[in-house]
Amino acid sequence: MYKHYLCINLLSVYHVMEKNACRLTTERLFLRAWQDSDAEALCKYAKDPAIGPIAGWSPHTSVEDSLEIIRTVFSAPETYAVVLKSTEEPVGSIGIMLGDGLHSAEMRQGEAEIGYWIGRPYWGQGLIPEAVRCLLQRCFEDLGMTAVWCGYYEGNTKSRRVMEKCGFRFHHTETGKVSPLGDIRTEHFMRMTKEEWIESKNIS
Q1: Strand order across the beta sheet in which 111-118 lies
Q2: Is 114:139 a contact under the CB 8 Å cutoff?
Q3: What percent of the chain has pLDDT over 70?
Q4: Closest to 1 in 3D by CA, of 193, 155, 140, 141
Q5: Residues 177, 179: Cα–Cα separation, whole Å
Q6: 148: closest CA among 174, 117, 169, 128?
Q7: Would you tell me how many other CB atoms lie within 10 Å of the CB of residue 69?
């Protein structure tokens, strides 16, 4: 799941991507930059205690709290609101973090990590796998990444299933990690190389 505490060194990544300049489209979704006007919708979904804590971040407490997140964390490059085409409402968030920023996986230069979450009413509909596949294409085709990582804490089976559906392969497990909430957790990491992504596209 997308971790609210992630921040990116903006100056070091502007040479490979513009700050949320693009609007991406899938069959059922728009992926676009977060806007101040999204704060109420963000709060509606991010205040759910079933969303944030399992991914390591605290539930939002107010619309003002959500607005602050939009203006700080969600203003980072390649951070997108997951917006339903049918309603034009943002119902989740997804983003790409690079190796020279703060992230979970031990990445090399030219690698990235994708993080995500979606509101509970939209679990089990395949919307986040749809968004992840879109960002995989962006990583490999537009940004020239050689590999993409995803991580999830022990017990977050929904996040793991998304990774499996999208073709990620288990890489390693790290124990004794302190989460942003201060507790000790086990985190599992999955990875996809560009070659594996190309192979999966050819098979499908």
Answers
A1: 24-25, 29-32, 79-84, 90-98, 111-118, 147-153, 184-193, 169-178
A2: yes
A3: 85
A4: 155
A5: 6
A6: 169
A7: 20
Site of tokens 């302190």: 178
Q: Which of 117, 1, 11, 8 is nearest to 72 (CA)?
A: 8
Q: How many CB atoms lie within 10 A of CB 179?
A: 17
> What CA–CA distance (Å, rounded) separates 144 from 129?
21
Rounded to a whole number of angstroms, the CA Rg of the chain reads: 16
Altogether, the residues listed in the chain come to a count of 204
Q: How many CB atoms lie within 10 A of CB 112?
A: 25
* pTM of structure: 0.87
- Residue 102, CA distances (Å) to 3, 7, 123, 185 in order: 11, 6, 27, 18
For 194, the token pair is: 């560009």
Distance between CA 59 and CA 99 in Å, rounded?
27
According to DSSP, residue 111 is labeled E
Which structure tokens are listed for 151?
């991580």
- One DSSP character per residue, 30-73 reads EEE---GGGHHHHHHHHT-TTTSGGGT-PPP-SHHHHHHHHHTG
Best CA proximity match to 107, nearest among 5, 4, 8, 176? 8
For residue range 160-179, what is the model confidence (pLDDT) as tens digits?
999 999 999 999 999 999 99
Distance CA 60, CA 35 (A): 17
Q: Give CA–CA dist 86/122, Å, rounded.
A: 13
Query: Per residue in 15-32, pLDDT tens?
Result: 334 445 589 999 999 999
How far apart (Å, rounded) are the C-alpha atoms in residues 154 and 175? 10
